[in-house]
Amino acid sequence: MARRAARTPGERAALVLHLSRLGPPAPQPHHRRIARALLTEAAQRHDGQLFALGNGDLVLLCRHAPSPARTSAADDPASLKDNLARLFGGESAEPEAMVSLWLLPAQEVFLIAYATEQLGIAERSGNGLSPAAAERRGAVPVTLPAEPAPFAASADFTALLQRRTGALITRSGGIRPHSFRPLFREIALSPAALWARSAPADGTGPDPWLVRHFAHRLDDPLLALIEAALPGPGPLGMAGAPHDFALHVNLSVRTIVKERCAHLFQLCRSIGVKIGVEVSLVEAAAAPEAFEAARAALRRSGFRIVLGGVSHQTLRMVRPRSLDADLLKLDWSARLLRLAEPDRAALAAALGAIGMERVILNRADGEEAVLWGLAQGVGRFVGHHVEVMLAAGRMLTCSAAAGCTLGQCTERAASATAAGRRFCRNPVLLDSGAPSPGPL
Amino acid sequence: MTLMRQISGADLDTTALGTLARDCRLAGVERRVLLVRLSLVPPEHYRPHHGRLAEGALEPLGSADRARLYRLPGHDLALVWRGDAARQESRVLATLAVLFAESAPPLPCFAELVCRFTVPRDAERLAACLAAPEVVRPTAAGRPPLDLAALGAIERALASADMSRFARRRSICRRDGSGPFRLAWEKRFLSVTEIGESLAPEHDLEADPWLFRRLARTLDRRMLALLSAPHALAAAAPFAIELSVESILSPAFLGFDAALPAGLRGKIVLDLLPADILNDASAFLFARDFARGRGYRLALRAITPALLPIVPPDPFGVDFLEVPYSSGLAALPRAALDAALPARERILLTGIDSAGALFWGEAQGFALFQGRAALPET
Q1: Residue A440 lies in a domain
Q2: Which end of chain A has fewer CB atoms surrounding its CB within 10 Å, N or C?
Q3: Strand, helix or coil for residue B178
Q4: How close is the nearest chain A Cα to the Cα of B290, in Å?
Q5: Residue A436, domain member (yes or no)
Q6: Residue A146: inside a domain, yes or no?
Q7: Claim to verify: residue A172 and residue A58 sit in the same structural domain
Q8: Could you tell me the pTM of the whole model?
């Protein structure tokens, strides 16, 4: 294709939109769809042809000579390059590298080199998820699933839960296990597990609104489960936990103001367990009055409200400080490492206005996230890396750790089911929420 | 009462009264207003003779210069005249006092029931008195929320339904200076109320916010298909449609975009909800830039007083903010309103159904309105 284009008489251009260079989770089906629509239109206008490569990149070969039909500079392939770079560059690590434009035949060597490279990659790796499959995964499910059924056994329900521990990094001098002090245990329904259990069999991906609906419908069983388990030991119990170790639960604002929730708050007060309830920013924005009522209900009970689902992008769109949450969970993203200076300054200002002591860096799954957070002044973290470091701390002191691996200890701590932790020989330590005693 | 011109319908009267007050302010001329607030009488105690008696009591002022009676929503009556008519005014007040002042509760006290104003000096006080009561959705009250089975049934029915029977339009009007209202654009939408009444009369479609968002997304697609039909937009005026972020990035929107007549490009407004944007900020930023590149303007809708502190003055890089009028909004201190909505020219005030709401909106410097009190001149 590249060699034929280079041989075609007249001034021609090759424009490559490198969708493969979008950072995960992109490219999403809508990226491909919009890109294809824009380039198809350009192909029609410039007597061109559009090619879709196996890695998702789109290549437009078109006429570059001035056309009598051209009416504005916006019609020019060079302008198209700028427009596409602006549109797709926002989600790329290297915005300027999202689009290539080569004039043919003068720059045919670049096109041929690119085509050769893609051919090699395709032969080595295959194409992965086909565009059709990706489109289906991104589509709205046509068939609606059923409402979540009543759970016959608590094991069925606990399999949908994820258990995480939030920690404060207490000491400087490196990210070591003894620097992580557990602050709270977080119990939440796993959206992925929920969708896997409920999804229709048409291969469509999670519908965010249906997942939220399911989660709300399961608030009552979740409360019942926690209420029953709270006073005892076990994955959902708080017996033996340090007095300042709290329980965080994800609930909808409509549930927080219900009588059912008041029972849980009363129980927590009577057994001396501190509680925090996490509400998503989306729900707070959808029903600000209800959020306010929920926050008031929690504070009346002496508990705190946690605002979740906050990204660095949403922090610039809204003023979460006005929601007056006690804690705010900022979702980590690798993009935070590559923010342009104005964006970085705006984010720092927004976090500063909220107060670093109220910010939790969520999804801190790797060390780079923790390092970024510490550099910003954030001290509270939730994520896989925290789980690993806490597991390492436990293993250093656990008398029954022989034969266990770090990965096993991490996985067992994250499980809310008895089956998920049955090989642990020291479940008291697994659930203790106690800090690591210090460097050995 | 021969000097009092009768205008058909309370809605037209509210518009006319709003126009008169505005004209007085702009021209610097004064009018006296006597307002009988029968809307304060609890509905269960209101009787038609209250209105007849009040209207009869106002008759002596009918002989005043340029006297005109306005029949307002909620059975309120406003008599407006020019110049000095102290003698007639005293007679009217005396009669009204006899008729209403001695009334025991639950009727309001006389000072609340009968108020006097000089416009434009008292325009804001008059606007506050005329403020429309909060709109309560009575139709769905008490019905169970939508569940997945009902939602599935609605979506199946919608797939083959003639959506044109649910399609509605509302006028968005602009008024600059003292001129008449001019159509800025139309809002095109599918009536959720009628869809509910027709397809799921036993459910409250909006009670479960997440299932309603899902339904709204389905309706987006149906609306886009309706607008993409051949000749659907052949003679269309500029318009706005409510869409989700996901719908802007859908194949249905690309079909609509391809079918959009060249004359309408650059004149279409896409209305988005803040919660929908926050659900996937990354997708929104992409959709926003894509839509902008295709010549669409963007609006953020349903910005209630409770949301105002959360939404910054220039949120999301959109072109317009749709702010529903409410007594809560009107009660905000001017400084708070100025801080939240500094760029008045970008604010569309919706739900302007009363002269009071229009008074308030114009006094605050808004120029884009939607509602029964702000209709375009035909």
Answers
A1: no
A2: C
A3: coil
A4: 6
A5: no
A6: no
A7: no
A8: 0.80
Measured in angstroms, the CA of B309 and the nearest CA of chain A are apart by: 6
- Which residues of chain B make contact with A281, given a CB cutoff of 8 A? 278
- Answer yes or no: is A12 within a domain: yes
CB contact under 8 A, A311 and B281: yes
Q: Which residues of B touch A (CB under 8 A)?
A: 147-149, 151-152, 155, 208-211, 213-214, 217-218, 246, 249-251, 254, 257, 273-275, 277-283, 285-287, 289-290, 293, 304, 306-307, 309-312, 315-316
- Whichever domain contains A384, its CATH number is 3.20.20.450
Domain of residue A361, residue span: 154-431
**CATH value at residue A129:** 3.30.70
> How far, in whole angstroms, is CA A199 from its chain's centroid?
20
Whether residues A281 and A241 share a domain: the answer is yes
User: Looking at the predicted complex, does its ipTM rise above 0.95?
Assistant: no
Domains of chain B and CATH, by start: 10-130 (3.30.70), 148-370 (3.20.20.450)
Encode chain B (378 residues) as per-residue pLDDT tens digits. 333 333 335 555 666 777 777 777 777 788 999 998 887 777 667 777 888 888 888 999 988 998 998 887 778 888 999 988 888 888 898 888 877 755 555 667 777 788 888 888 877 677 767 655 544 444 566 789 999 999 999 999 999 889 999 999 999 999 877 678 899 999 999 999 999 999 999 999 999 999 999 999 999 999 999 999 988 898 899 999 999 999 999 999 999 999 999 999 999 999 999 999 999 999 999 999 999 999 999 999 999 999 998 888 776 789 999 999 998 999 998 898 998 888 899 999 999 988 788 888 988 889 999 998 888 876
- Pick A33's closest partner by Cβ from B249, B275, B310: B249
Q: Are residues A71 and A121 in the same domain?
A: yes
B277/A317 CB distance under 8 A: yes
Count how many domains chain A has: 2
Q: Which residue from A30, A87, A320 is facing B289, i.e. has the nearest CB?
A: A87
For A266, the token pair is: 């009363």
